[in-house]
Amino acid sequence: MEFGAASSRVLNSNHFLCLIPNPKKFQSQIDLPSLNLRLPSNASFQISSSISRRDCTFKATLKDTSTSTPTVKKMSGNEFELSSLTALSPLDGRYWSKVKDLAPYMSEYGLIYFRVLVEIKWLLKLSQIPQVAEVPSFSEEAQSYLQGVIDDFSMNDALEIKNIERVTNHDVKAVEYFLKQKCQSHPEIAEVLEFFHFACTSEDINNLAHALMLKEAMHTAIFPVMDELIEAICNMAKDHAHIPMLSRTHGQPASPTTLGKEMAVFAVRLSRERRDMSQIELMGKLAGAVGNYNAHLVAYPDVKWPQIAEDFVKSLGLSFNPYVTQIETHDYMAKLFHAIIQFNNILIDFDRDVWSYISLGYFKQTTKAGEIGSSTMPHKVNPIDFENSEGNLGVANGGLSHLSIKLPISRWQRDLTDSTVLRNMGVGLGHSILAYTSTLQGITKLQVMRRYGVPEPYEKLKELTRGRAVTKESITQFIEGLELPKEAKSNLLKLTPHTYVGAAVELARTVDVAVNLVNKTKVFEIHSVKS
């Protein structure tokens, strides 16, 4: 048979073979079985004409009638409302329940809330400056009203500001307009509505709002989980302080250590980063359009605006940055995010080590009824918590790394590139929290395995020794009969009464310490009873 072109395609029901006879040689009808074509039974083919002779030659052409893409339902984004199923970020969908504690601070709602807070606090500050006579001191009732706007700020208020923004196309101006509407019914505050946002550029409000968002998120959501994680690893260190473990360097067996000591290394490393992180100053500015108090000094030249700004920023619980452009320089943010990255890097190291200890059999994982470890291998209990943690730490570090590299850079006195980037602070923090909780969950499932998992070891030894003379030969025979690794059997066979003493020597040498501790306990108990 002569084919026009070679093809390696496998024929199936979506292909047909078109046999085009050579017009010079066909004379009799084709006998299909004699062609010895290897086609599936459901393959379809066609012959364009009959042939009068069997020894004729003809050409074959393979035509592909299959479609390259399967039929997919056409969907439009207009059909979707935001929900856990339609959210683009898994933080807002699948993982929402684990990261929602960040939402009051790192969400769009959080940003709007803290803008409202800063604007109101600035108006109150102006009322305390004698030279700003146009904003007299507020009565206690007016102060209480303004504080109530902050304390009672709701989701509906935030939505109202978003509605105003659709008209203004400016998010900070929308907050100013909202506050004017909110306060125009109060006669005292209505007299000074135009002093909302006085002498401020948007970044005076934004930088303080972002700093407050970070401050509250770190202290309310991030630090508590970090502390819980460090405590859990400390407990692992103490609980397993006595459990010997063969250490490994370069992936090879090395000198002995203990499982607890190796856990202690991570606890100390993480706590050091946690301490350094808490000492980073979160900074703010209120210096106007380019950091020089231009508008402030034109309006009220006798006011010491740099001092007023410093007092105001510090009153919010932030540190003051006196040397800025239109924006706060974001150097503290870079420092903070780098510190979180380092904390996360250490935790990745921990996750990988525990994963490896599970693989070596040092740990086993408890199971929960109904949980499935593998879709095809039901016997498996995979270390998914530590794997999920490692993966999310990588995602977190990627986002935080970009923030820390990009934010300190701004063209001249300001460009807008930081604005859109700052809206992603919650992404890096969210994936970090998700990782911390995954590691914590994994730790709760860990159990130290009995070495080699020999079932009923006590009963086996009891059967050998009870009422019988124990000889070297009987012990050797007993060890040889155990289902143990060859190396473990060899080590057991080498033991003698002189070498099988464990830590007895060290315990004997330190008996005074133990005695003193016991004596102190007894003395304390006696005094407690007498008192």
From TrEMBL:
- The EC number on file is 4.3.2.2
Which pathway does the UniProt entry assign to this protein? Purine metabolism; IMP biosynthesis via de novo pathway; 5-amino-1-(5-phospho-D-ribosyl)imidazole-4-carboxamide from 5-amino-1-(5-phospho-D-ribosyl)imidazole-4-carboxylate: step 2/2; Purine metabolism; AMP biosynthesis via de novo pathway; AMP from IMP: step 2/2
Annotated GO biological processes are: IMP biosynthetic process
Fumarate lyase N-terminal domain spans which residues?
Answer: 101-394
Broadest EC class assigned to this enzyme = lyase
Keyword Lyase part of the UniProt annotation: yes
Gene3D superfamilies recorded: Fumarase/aspartase (C-terminal domain) (1.10.40.30), Fumarase/aspartase (Central domain) (1.20.200.10), Fumarase/aspartase (N-terminal domain) (1.10.275.10)
- Source domain of life is Eukaryota
Domain Adenylosuccinate lyase PurB C-terminal as annotated: residue spans: 448-501
Please give the CDD domains that the UniProt record associates with this protein: PurB
Q: Which InterPro entries match?
A: Fumarase/histidase_N, Fumarate_lyase_CS, Fumarate_lyase_fam, Fumarate_lyase_N, L-Aspartase-like, Pur_lyase, PurB_bact, PurB_C
PROSITE patterns given in the database record = FUMARATE_LYASES
For whether the record's keyword set contains Mitochondrion, the answer is: no
- Spell out the SUPFAM superfamilies in the cross-references: L-aspartase-like
Keywords of the record, alphabetical order, are:
Lyase, Purine biosynthesis
User: What is this protein's name?
Assistant: Adenylosuccinate lyase
